[in-house]
Amino acid sequence: PWIVVRVPSTLGPDDPSGRFAWWLTRILDGEPILLPDGGTHAIQLGYSHDLAQFLVRLLEGGPAGNIYNYAQHETPQLANWLQVIADAAHKPLHTVAVPSSILQQATELPWEDWSYASFCYCPLLMSVAKAEADIGLDFRTSLRDWVQTTVDAYLQNPETLSSADHSEQRPAEIDFARRWTGAREQLLRTLAD
């Protein structure tokens, strides 16, 4: 007997990937965060606790020989998800929207590396309708609740924030954000004249 489960990036306390920590460390430092194309695309995530419950349900009685997609029910825009993280951390969110083509051409930041600025590129949205119908996903935690739980876990153990990769890139991100903002403001003044 077999069951295949396809999951999106799954986050929560004790996440070893560093993806959540990447964004949280930048929100906590209060400096501008580069956001390709303004972060307007939808993202689909999983919450580790809910995924564990789903897997237990499958093991206890899921129909064998099936393939299921699992994800949280919300598919927020990246910018909205970051705002939920900032709210949970009680910090302001300071993003700078830049066209992704400009970021690719004008910076030496590793945008193509999956561990850098996770969820900025290659959004993938899966239907969970089959899992909802066959297994029931009524136990999924709301976005605000699981993000709050995750932020609280990181803030209670700040050393876990060290799992965020690319901290050496942060000064270059801040510098480019400031230069982009200045150039944009100058262009707007010029156009207004």
Structure description:
The chain is mainly alpha-helical and about 190 residues long. It is built from 7 helices and 6 strands; from the N terminus they run E-E-H-E-E-H-E-H-E-H-H-H-H. Helix 1 packs across helix 3 and helix 3 crosses helix 6. The longest helix is centred in the last third of the chain and has 23 residues.
Kindly report how far apart the N and C termini lie: 71 Å
Strand order of the largest sheet: 1-5
List SSEs in N-to-C order: EEHEEHEHEHHHH
Averaged pLDDT: 93
Number of helices: 7
How would you sum up the major sheet? 2 strands, parallel
Task: Name the beta content range.
Answer: 5-15%
What descriptive keywords fit this protein?
two-stranded parallel sheet, mainly alpha, 10% strand, 45% helix, 193 residues, 6 strands, 7 helices
Give a quick precis of the structure.
The chain has 193 residues and is mainly alpha-helical. The chain has seven helices and six strands; from the N terminus they run ββαββαβαβαααα. Strands 1-5 form a two-stranded parallel sheet.
